[in-house]
Amino acid sequence: LPSTSISITVFESEPSASSRSQGGTLDIHTESGQRLIKAAGLLDAFKKIARPEGDVMKIADKHGVLHLDEAGEEAPRLSGKGPQDLGDRPEVDRRALRAMLIESIPAEIIKWGSKVAKVVSGDTGYTVVLADGKDSEVFDLVVGADGAWSRVRPLLTAETPFYAGVVSVEFHIHDVDSRFPDIARRVGAGTLAVLSDSRGLFAQRQGDGSVRTYAMFRASGEWLDEKAYDFSKDKQRFADDLFPGWSERDRELVLKANEDSVVLRRLHMLPRGHRWEHQPGLTLLGDAAHVMLPFGEGVNDALLDALQLGEQLIEAVKEKQDLSKAITAYEEGMFERAKEHVEES
Q1: For 28, 71, 101, 295, which has the most beta carbons within 10 A of its beta carbon?
Q2: What total of structural domains would you count in the chain?
Q3: Is 205 part of any domain?
Q4: Mean pLDDT, to the nearest integer, of 50-65?
Q5: Which InterPro entries match (predicted)?
Q6: Is 330 inside any structural domain?
Q7: Which of the four pLDDT bands, split at 50, 70 and 90, describes residue 39?
Q8: Is residue 223 part of a domain?
């Protein structure tokens, strides 16, 4: 859209592009996420940050036995530069992907430090009210791309995300090659999934030479509150509670992690088949529209949402058509695609 005559403002709550870590890696799919990257003319830039060598999987059980190894124990070291052949699902660090997208648009479009409190309907459009009490200009269209707890969604639907009964605890091991070479070899260049007893450890190589591990398991909110883990001192208790009898080699993904970078998340999702009645001048994309568990399409759906909505809007403006028709066409396609992917997750 920035290359068209359509005027855009992005309200971003974070103070700057580098204000926090953006989390782990993402696999960007040919049939979805890469389509937006190509359409935006960013393929060459993407090749510089993509890691096709990261698209390899190892699967082990709790005894440490490997049942799948797509790369071999001595997986290649990360180069930091993707080759010309990206493959179907190259990995990319979230921070690098975000930086690439931000740098591709004029700086004045993004209003940093602008946390949205609510969106108000008026006679001539919608006004974005910021947390500091300031009002924006009036917009013909407001797109909620503001995540699971969207401030735009309440204008379209009463549905809110519910706790899915799954917990993710994120652990991070810095400088893994020099500090823990055995762990580096075990994880390899891609992802190691250790699965047993309806729980798992998912370890991913990062572009900075670290390993990020997600411990995932089912638990009630009450159980979590009762345990009250303090990860500055409770890594051993956590590993003993959740992964008793598991291979010590794989438990080290938790036990050797840096204490200052542990993040516990209760995972939420919107109901399967979630949709809303079209309302002129409003729509949603990404997690705001269809937040799901992180076992499916996720970011690729969000990128494809952005591409398809953008294409519909550009065509409507070009042909001087009603925007509502364009938005409805986008929403109907997105609803069907998201329903399928939420079920898969």
Answers
A1: 28
A2: 1
A3: yes
A4: 94
A5: FAD-bd, FAD/NAD-bd_sf
A6: no
A7: very high
A8: yes
